[in-house]
Every structure is written in structure tokens, then in C-alpha cells.
Design brief:
Blueprint lengths: L2 H14 L12 H8 L3 H13 L3 E4 L3 E4 L4 H4 L1 H8 L3 H24 L3 H14 L5 H18 L3 H10 L2 H13 L3 H16 L3 H23 L17
Antiparallel strand pairs: 1-2
Length: 240
């Protein structure tokens, strides 16, 4: 390993061991470099790398601090990759999202509260007046985010937000609008809500899996990558 890699590993170890906590300031550069046994240049490169992934924050004239280490902050780098996806990568991301969304729906059904059900009802009702792709993106974002939040797992919520950026959602909803599949997709949201209201975790999970898989299949067809011999990958009949 290079000195830079050693410095990164050492700082990571300090955070893991509780020597450094969120919001803590790192020791002065010379002191830390001597402690870690690395040159100042290698330490600076290590700090720069950790700053890039939002583990550290360099405040000019003040020092270097550990960030909040909140999931949404640490996952921002993945969000960048999501937004510069190609078709093959996007399909793979939806495969991951299918698994995570199903887990979130299961948790939401298990922990459903009247407040959650009311909130999801309001979101569905507002979708009736959607007049643009932007409106549909907003509806979809809030609907899925509320379900993920019910799981009470910040990393699950953060991963789903990251894999479902507004850029990706806009592309999907634009395609669904052109294909005449918006009403069916919103009806799937209704079915998921009904399962959550009933507290049926298995059904909520299955419906969410089917919901995301339908979009995934549409993407495969749109990208010209689906295999007509594989029944799992047949394009969804959107009635167009």
C-alpha cells in the first residue's frame, strides 16, 4: 500500500475506534502525519480523498473536521454515478432498487401507522392532478420516500433516494407517459398502499417487486436489451 492508502486506512481506523467522532477536528497536519508515519504530501492526498467522499471537511484557515457521516451525505458520490448512467447500468441499478424497495414496503406494512396511511393517501390524491412529467416525478419521489422512511433505516432510505434521483425518475416517467402507462403505474401505487394499510407485509413486498420490475422490464425494452426468449424480460403491454 502507498503512504496515502496507509493514511486513509489509519484515519478510517480512528473513526471506527471512536478516537474521532462526527464534528471532531483532526489533529494539526504535522502532528497527525508524524503519528501516522506518513509524509505531509501523502497526508494531504489522503485528506483530499476522504473529503471527496464526504468523510472529511476541510475548512480553510480553521482545520479539517470529520463530517456528520450521515448516510445521505456519504451516499452523494453514488448519486453522481447514477446521474451519468448508461442504459445497461440503469437497468442494473433498477435490479438493486427492486430488492430494496420490496424490503421497504414489507417494513412499512409491518409498521404502518394511521399517519403513514393518511400521508400516502394524500400523495395518491395529489397525483390525480399531475399535469407534467415534473409533477409525476414529485409524486413518485414522495410516495416511495414515505414508504422507505417507514422502515426507520436511514441507510435503506438513503440508498433508495440515491438510486432514484430526479434525473432517473424524469426519464422513466417521460417514457411511461409516451407509452400510455401512467394510469397503470399509479394504480400499482394504490395497490401497494392498500396492502400497507391492511398490514399485509408479504403482499406489499410482492406488489412493490412487481411494480419496480415492470419499470425495469420497460427499460430493457426501451434500451433494446431485453431477451425475447426470456419470459421474465418480455416488454410490458402498456396498451399503446
Amino acid at each position: 500500500m502507498s503512504q496515502t492508502d496507509n493514511a486513509i486506512a489509519a484515519i478510517k481506523g480512528m473513526i471506527q475506534a471512536g478516537e474521532l467522532h462526527p464534528g471532531d477536528r483532526l489533529p494539526p497536519e504535522r502532528e497527525l502525519g508524524e503519528r501516522l508515519g506518513v509524509s505531509r504530501n501523502s497526508l494531504r492526498e489522503a485528506v483530499k480523498s476522504l473529503e471527496t467522499i464526504n468523510v472529511l471537511s476541510v475548512r480553510r484557515g480553521d482545520g479539517t473536521y470529520v463530517t456528520s457521516l450521515e448516510p445521505t451525505l456519504l451516499l452523494e458520490g453514488i448519486s453522481f454515478l447514477v446521474d451519468i448512467h448508461d442504459d445497461a447500468t440503469l437497468i442494473e441499478m433498477f435490479g438493486v432498487r427492486r430488492v430494496l424497495e420490496a424490503a421497504a414496503a414489507r417494513a412499512a406494512a409491518t409498521r404502518a401507522t394511521p399517519a403513514l396511511v393518511t400521508r400516502l393517501e394524500e400523495i395518491l390524491e395529489s397525483s390525480r392532478g399531475a399535469e407534467s412529467v415534473d409533477d409525476l416525478v414529485e409524486h413518485d419521489t414522495v410516495f416511495h420516500r414515505e414508504i422507505a422512511s417507514a422502515a426507520r433505516n436511514r441507510y435503506l432510505s438513503g440508498m433508495l433516494d440515491t438510486l432514484s434521483s430526479s434525473t432517473v425518475r424524469a426519464r422513466v416517467w417521460r417514457g411511461l407517459s409516451q407509452g400510455g402507462a401512467v394510469e397503470r403505474t399509479l394504480a400499482e401505487h394504490r395497490a401497494i398502499l392498500d396492502a400497507i394499510r391492511a398490514g399485509d407485509a408479504d403482499l406489499a413486498s410482492a406488489l412493490m417487486t412487481t411494480h419496480i420490475a415492470g419499470v425495469e422490464t420497460w427499460l430493457r425494452g426501451a434500451a433494446g436489451r431485453w431477451d425475447p426468449e426470456d419470459p421474465r424480460e418480455r416488454p410490458v403491454d402498456d396498451g399503446s
